[in-house]
Amino acid sequence: MTQKTGDRLTHFDASGQAAMVDVSAKPETARTATARARISMLPATLALIQSGEAKKGDVLGVARLAGIMAAKRTADLIPLCHPLPISAVAVIFDSDAASSAIEIIATVRTTGRTGVEMEALTAASVAALTIYDMCKAVDRGMVVDGLRVTEKSGGASGDYAAP
User: Fold this and answer.
1) 8, 20, 77, 90: which has the fewest C-beta neighbours closer than 10 Å?
2) Active site residue 58
3) Top-ranked range on mean pLDDT: pick from 5-14, 18-27, 150-159
4) CB neighbourhood size of 15 (10 A)
5) Does the structure show a pLDDT above 90 at 60?
C-alpha cells in the first residue's frame, strides 16, 4: 500500500518500492485538465494536411481519434497511473501558417478521486505523434515540442492555469 508522508502522497511504499497511490479516501469530484503540444513542419506539409490530400488520408481526423483513444488507455501506458472513468475527451487543432505548425489542444473530463492531467497529456502527445507518423514520408524533420498541462480544475489541489 502506498505511504502517506505528512500531507503528501508518494509513489513509494514503506519499503521504498514503487507503488500506486491509494486514493480510496479521497472524495469524488468533477475534474478537468487541458494539455497542449505543438508540431512544426515544412509549409508544404502543413498545406498537404490542410488540403486533405495526404496519401494516408484525413491526418487531423485520424490524429483526433488517436488522441481520444490514447486518453482512454493512459493507465495501460503510464506505470502507476490510475484507470479512470473518463466522461469526455476533446482533441482540437489550431493551424498556424505563419510558423508552419499545428497546436494540439486536448481536454479530458472525469468525476473521480484523482485528476486527468496524464490523460490530457497522453491525448495531446499521441495526436502529435500520429500527425508525424502520417506525414513522415514527406517531412522527416517535423518537431514535436511544448507538451504541457495548461489548465486543471477540481480536486484537493485546486485549479491551475499555466502562465
Assistant:
1) 8
2) no
3) 150-159
4) 7
5) yes
The full length of the chain comes to: 163
For residues 132, 133, 135, 141, the Cα torsion angle rounded to the nearest 10 degrees is 50
Whole-prediction pTM: 0.88
135 known member of a binding site: no
Element (DSSP H or E) covering residue 124: helix 117-135
Shortest CA distance to 93 belongs to which of 71, 122, 61? 61
Tell me the pairing of strands 29-40 and 160-161: unpaired
Binding residue per annotation — 119? yes
- Cα separation values, 81 from 39, 47, 93, 97, 106, Å: 26, 38, 26, 36, 18
Please tell me the distance from the alpha carbon of residue 62 to that of residue 59, in angstroms, as a whole number: 5
Q: What distance in Å separates the CA atoms of residue 4 and residue 8, rounded to the nearest whole number? A: 6
Cα distance from N-terminal residue to C-terminal residue, the chain: 36
**Annotated binding-site residue? 11:** no
Specify the 3-state DSSP secondary structure of 40. strand
